[in-house]
Specification:
This protein is an alpha+beta fold. It contains 8 helices and 12 strands. It is globular, with a radius of gyration of 18 Å.
Length: 299
C-alpha cells in the first residue's frame, strides 16, 4: 500500500499493511507464547495482598523477553530503518522495546477482574508472577498519550506498534483519535465527549478543543503502525480466547540531530507546549489506579 508521509504530520499516525513478513511475525509470537503457561500466570489473591506492588512490574533492562528473542527481521530491516530515519532522523534511537499482551477475559481470575473493574489503565503486571513480568499485560486501556510515562520530556519520540497476528474487533484492536496530538501533551485522564459513533470532542488542559475522528486498527499480522507520542489511543479488553501479542517500540530523535524530519514537522503543528511536568493524576502514592470511569470501554 502506498502511504503519503504527510499522513503522519496531518493525522498523527501512519499505517503500513504487510510491512513485515507474516510468517516471521507469527514465529515470534509463538516463541513468546511458548515461554509461559497462561493458566499459571497470575498470583494468588493471598500473595498479591501481601505484596501489593504497583510500581516496577513492567519489563525492564534484564527482565525483557523481547531482548531474548530473534528480532532481526524487525530491527535489522532496511525498510524499517529507512522509515525510522524518515520520521526520527539518521541518528534515531530506540528508547524502549517490549512485548505487550492482551489477556483474554477467560484467563483473568474473578478477584483480579473485580480489582480492575472500570479502571482507566488495566495493567495486569501487579497481579502476575514476578518471573513473568518480562512482558506488559493489559485488559483494556483508556485513551492516553504515550508521553504519560515521561513528565518533563520534550515530545521527541514516536510509538511503533507491530501486529504479530491478525487483529480483528474481538482481539483488542487499537483505537486512535486522529489529530488529537495537535493539542500537545495533556494530563491523564483526558477530557473527552463522544459526539457520534466515530467522533470525539477532545479538550486539553488549556481549554483548547478539537473534534477527532476515531480510527479502529484491525489488520493482519505484519502491519506496522506508528504515531506521535501525543496522539490519544487505547484499547478494549481481549474477547478472543487467544492472547493478542504485539511488539511496541518507542523511537526517539537524537537531541544532537539538527536535520528536519517528520517528527519535527508534526510537532510544529502542535498548538501548545511540547512537554508537561505532571502527566497523570490517576495514581495514588503507591502507584495504584484510584480513578474509575473508563471512557473507551463505556463507549
Amino acid at each position: 500500500m502506498s502511504v503519503n508521509p504527510n499522513n503522519f504530520v496531518i493525522n498523527g499516525f501512519e499505517e503500513h499493511i504487510n510491512f513485515f513478513d507474516k510468517t516471521e511475525c507469527l514465529n515470534l509470537m509463538n516463541a513468546a507464547l511458548d515461554t509461559r503457561n497462561i493458566n499459571e500466570l497470575f498470583l494468588s489473591k493471598e500473595v498479591f495482598e501481601k505484596e501489593k506492588k504497583f510500581k516496577g512490574v513492567n519489563p525492564m533492562v534484564g527482565r525483557n523477553l523481547l531482548e531474548k528473542m530473534d528480532t532481526n527481521f524487525i530491527f535489522s530491516s532496511k525498510k524499517f530503518n529507512d522509515k525510522m530515519i524518515q520520521v526520527c532522523g539518521k541518528k534515531y534511537k530506540i528508547l524502549n522495546a517490549k512485548f505487550v499482551m492482551g489477556i483474554p477475559k477467560k484467563f483473568i481470575p474473578k478477584w483480579v477482574e473485580n480489582e480492575l473493574r472500570d479502571t482507566l489503565v488495566s495493567n495486569l503486571g501487579s497481579f502476575v508472577q514476578e518471573k513473568y513480568r518480562d512482558i506488559t499485560y493489559f485488559s483494556g486501556i483508556d485513551f492516553h498519550q504515550d508521553i504519560i510515562d515521561y513528565p518533563n520530556r520534550n515530545s521527541d519520540f514516536i510509538t511503533v506498534y507491530i501486529y504479530l497476528d491478525k487483529v480483528d474487533r474481538n482481539a483488542a484492536p487499537l483505537y486512535l483519535l486522529q489529530n488529537s496530538h495537535l493539542l500537545g501533551p495533556a494530563t491523564f485522564p483526558h477530557k473527552l465527549v463522544k459526539k457520534d459513533t466515530n467522533q470525539y470532542l477532545y479538550k486539553n488542559d488549556f481549554d483548547k478543543e478539537i473534534i477527532c475522528d476515531l480510527k479502529e486498527l484491525t489488520n493482519d499480522g505484519g502491519t506496522l503502525y506508528f504515531w506521535n507520542c501525543n496522539l490519544l489511543h487505547g484499547t478494549q479488553p481481549q474477547i478472543n480466547d487467544v492472547p493478542r501479542i504485539s511488539v511496541r517500540v518507542l523511537v526517539k530523535k537524537d537531541e544532537n540531530d539538527d536535520e528536519i524530519c517528520l517528527i519535527d514537522l508534526s510537532n510544529n503543528k502542535i498548538n501548545g507546549p511540547l512537554s508537561l511536568s505532571k502527566t497523570r493524576i490517576d495514581l495514588d502514592a503507591l502507584g495504584k489506579g484510584v480513578i474509575r470511569g473508563n471512557i473507551i470501554n463505556k463507549n
